[in-house]
Design goal:
This protein is α/β, with parallel strands linked by helices. α5 links the parallel β6 and β7.
Length: about 300
C-alpha cells in the first residue's frame, strides 16, 4: 500500500471515530481502523494509543493557525487524545487547543495538568477552573498532577481530585513523573488507587521505566502515557539510521516506526507533539503499523535498556 492510499484510509478512519464522553465507542470497518491500536483505562474508557502533545505549541515557533490545523488533522486521523497543561506557554497552549477543538469537543479525549505549586488549599479546584475556561469546555476527560508536590500531602491532593470528579469537572484523574515509590505512596492513601495513569518520559532511547515502573503499572492494570516519544528536544530519534531503515521497508517515516515501537505492548499511550499537519500525518501511520519480531529485536539491540 502506498502512502497516498494509506493516508486516504486513515482519513476515512478518523472521520468514522465517535466518542461518547470519554469512551471511544465506534470504529470504522476499514482495514486501517481494524488494525488501529487502542488502550483501555481501568474505568472502561478506551482511547487511541496515539494522541497529541502540546508542550511547545503557541510559543511562536510556528503560526498558531498552522498549529491549530495540525491538531485538527490529528483528530481527523484518529489521534483523538490531546494532552496539555496549565504551565505550557503559561496557558497559551490550552487556549490554542480550545480554538482547535471548538465545535468538536465530543470527539476529543482532553487531558490537562495542574502545576505542583498550585495544589495547596483550594488550588487544584481554582487551577482546574482556569484550565477549563482557556480550553472552552466544562469538563476534562483526565486531569493530572504534573509532578510530585511538596505543597500538600497526597491525601489532600487525591481528595481534591475526587471532589472535581464528583462535580463532573473531570471524568478521571492521574499523575505525571511519579516513580514506583511515589506510586506506592499514592496507593496507600484513601482512593489513591483510583489513579488512572502515570504520564512519564518514555521512548526508544529512554527506556528506564521498563526496569520497574512499566511492570508496576501493568500489574495494577494502569496504562502509561509516554511524553517525548520521539526523543524530546530536537526529536533526536528521527535521525536514527535503524529507524530510518525500518521506515523505508514500510514506506513510512522514522517517526512512525519510533511511535509504533512505543505503543507496541498495548499499555502505553504515546503523545508526540507536532505543529505541522504534514508531520502529524506521518505520525498517524503508527496507529496501524505493525513491526515484525525481527524489527523489534533489531531496535532492542540498537537501543538496549540501560542497566
Amino acid at each position: 500500500m502506498n502512502r497516498r492510499r494509506f493516508s486516504g484510509l486513515c482519513i476515512g478512519f478518523g472521520a468514522s471515530l465517535s466518542l461518547a464522553g470519554p469512551m471511544l465507542t465506534a470504529l470504522s470497518n476499514s482495514s486501517a481502523a481494524a488494525a488501529a491500536r487502542t488502550v483501555k483505562f481501568r474505568d472502561g474508557a478506551i482511547v487511541p494509543a496515539l494522541g497529541q502533545g502540546s508542550a511547545n505549541l503557541a510559543q511562536g515557533k510556528r503560526s498558531e493557525a498552522a498549529e491549530e490545523e495540525a491538531l485538527r488533522t490529528g483528530l481527523s486521523l484518529g489521534m483523538a487524545l490531546i494532552d496539555t497543561a496549565e504551565m505550557y506557554g503559561s496557558g497559551r497552549s490550552e487556549t490554542l487547543i480550545g480554538r482547535a477543538i471548538a465545535g468538536q469537543r465530543d470527539r476529543v479525549f482532553l487531558v490537562s495538568k495542574v502545576w505542583p505549586n498550585h495544589v495547596a488549599g483550594d488550588g487544584i479546584a481554582r487551577a482546574c477552573e482556569a484550565s477549563l475556561a482557556r480550553l472552552g469546555t466544562d469538563h476534562l476527560d483526565l486531569y493530572l498532577l504534573h509532578w510530585p508536590s511538596r505543597e500538600a500531602d497526597l491525601s489532600s491532593i487525591v481528595a481534591a481530585f475526587e471532589n472535581l470528579r464528583a462535580a463532573g469537572k473531570t471524568r478521571a484523574w492521574g499523575v505525571s513523573n511519579f516513580k514506583v515509590a511515589d506510586m506506592e505512596a499514592l496507593f496507600r492513601v484513601p482512593h489513591g488507587d483510583r489513579c488512572a495513569t502515570n504520564q512519564v518520559l518514555y521512548n526508544l532511547a529512554n527506556r528506564d521505566i521498563e526496569r520497574d515502573l512499566l511492570p508496576w503499572c501493568e500489574r495494577h492494570g494502569m496504562p502509561v502515557m509516554a511524553y517525548s516519544p520521539l526523543g524530546g528536544a530536537g526529536a533526536s530519534l528521527l535521525r536514527d539510521p535503524v529507524l530510518a531503515r525500518i521506515g523505508a521497508a514500510h514506506n513510512c517515516s522514522a517517526a512512525a516506526v519510533a511511535l509504533a515501537w512505543t505503543i507496541r505492548g498495548g499499555n502505553v499511550i504515546a503523545i508526540p507533539e507536532s505543529g505541522s499537519a504534514e508531520h502529524v500525518r506521518e505520525n498517524a501511520v503508527a496507529l496501524s503499523l505493525t513491526l515484525t519480531p525481527d524489527e523489534l529485536h533489531t531496535l532492542d539491540a540498537a537501543h538496549p535498556v540501560k542497566r
